Amino acid sequence: MGSIPATKRVLLFTNSEHGQANVCLATSYALLTLSDEDVEVHFASFPPIEKFVAITSQHAVRDDPRARPIIFHPIDGIDMVSAWTRPELASEQDGLKMIDVVKLIYAIRRMMLLLKITLPWTGSEFVQILFSVIDIVHKVQPDIIAVDPAFSPALTALRHINAKFIVLSPNTIKDFAMPHQPNGEPLWKYPWFIEFPLAVTPESIIPCGPIIRPALPLKEVDPELAEWLGRAPTVYVNLGTHMLLDEEMAGEMAAALRMALDALNKKEEYQVTEKGCKVWDVLGEEMMESGRVRIVEWFEAEPTAVLEGGRVVCAVHHGGANSFLETVSAGIPQVVLPVWMDTYDFARRAEILGIGRWGNQGTEFGVAFKGRELGGALVDVLVGGRASVYEKRARELAELCKRSGGGRVIAARRILDEIEEVNGFEKVL
């Protein structure tokens, strides 16, 4: 018999928004289900994510009865979304809808707002969170800490008390390696060019691949949706929780779906699921009655379960890191509609990797997308001359993502390895 491994205590700090928290949830699951390790996971965040921590914990215990339940620690203070949706910031966001200004001025205003959104707390709110983080560290006494790089109060607190920590991020290598590139490249090369090959990749950056949160099978969570998805190949449109469409944009989306459906009518019976838009007028009442189109506020099942649980043949999303990587890991071609910052990187990646299309590249300044351009991209991905190429390449990348157990297992093992190492710098996963 082998010796029983010593228990290792890992503490994770993250914002409660899924865009950042999902990699921590995914890694928590992996830490708990490593067959050769005994890990105690402590998860510190704001109350909105507690339900999903419990679901992840239950999933791990179900898959591995040896797994210890995750211990959740609520952080005192206001969460990021509540902070950035307060009235004063909301009014600034409304002001950005006025695009009849010089593009440079508009870009400066947008960047100033983005800075406020990424650091939306007042001074006193920031300090309250900082002290709460310090109290949790002292209470847990972890062997290692992993922290969300967008969680500024936690990073500040950990540096203040000289804690040993790892940065655990959904972001790409470029986002961390860019300042290290030579010849002033951060000032002129990015984001205009794709990041590979990078001239310099610091040793502190550890590529893991997509760190994807496991999901319960769709047929268990939503049997009715699983049955509906199984009827025919499906186009899945999910623009995330922050991209809301007004009536004009809803009409453009409907026009794009109409184009795709018309092109598919002679090929095979397809379905279209769409999140958050009123597209009834354009798509036609009869299509709703026939059941070919389904509009929902959100799914009970995780997006990963939807992507993997039915016959999804194309995913349309806004280019968020989670959306892109979940689709890649599921082996599904995609159409990307970028709207801000790194979402444009992911749209470009989809085309360079040969797994899909940038769906609004030709759209004029200030407009999210146009139905004709998006519809053309959908038709190209679904039934165009390169459709089989997109599909083949997507499957190949999905297989690559599964190597070594996938990104969440790689991240979990690197975190545990770090307990045994003594480094003069923080590791970035």
Word description of this protein:
The chain has helices at 18-33, 50-63, 80-84, 87-95, 103-118, 123-140, 152-160, 173-177, 185-188, 218-221, 223-229, 247-264, 280-283, 285-290, 303-309, 321-330, 343-352, 371-383, 387-401, 407-420; strands spanning 7-13, 38-45, 71-74, 144-147, 165-167, 234-237, 271-275, 293-296, 312-317, 334-336, 356-358, 427-428. Strands 3-2-1-4-5-12 form a 6-stranded parallel β-sheet, sandwiched between helices. The chain has a 6-stranded parallel β-sheet with strand order 8-7-6-9-10-11, sandwiched between helices. It folds into 3 domains: 7-78 and 121-170 and 406-428, 3-Layer(aba) Sandwich (Rossmann fold), CATH 3.40.50.2000; 81-118; 218-403, Rossmann fold (3-Layer(aba) Sandwich). The chain is α/β, with parallel strands linked by helices. Helix 2 (50-63) links the parallel strand 2 (38-45) and strand 3 (71-74).
- Broad structural category: alpha/beta
User: Per the principal axes of the C-alpha atoms, what is the gross shape?
Assistant: globular
Would you identify the CATH architecture of the largest domain? 3-Layer(aba) Sandwich
* Total number of strands: 12
Which fold does the CATH topology of the largest domain refer to?
Answer: Rossmann fold
CATH superfamily of the largest domain: Glycogen Phosphorylase B
Domains (count): 3
Q: What Rg, in angstroms, do the CA atoms define?
A: 22 Å
How many H/I helical runs?
Answer: 20
Strand content: 5-15%
Contiguous low-pLDDT stretches (5 residues minimum) are 422-426
Provide the residue-averaged pLDDT.
84
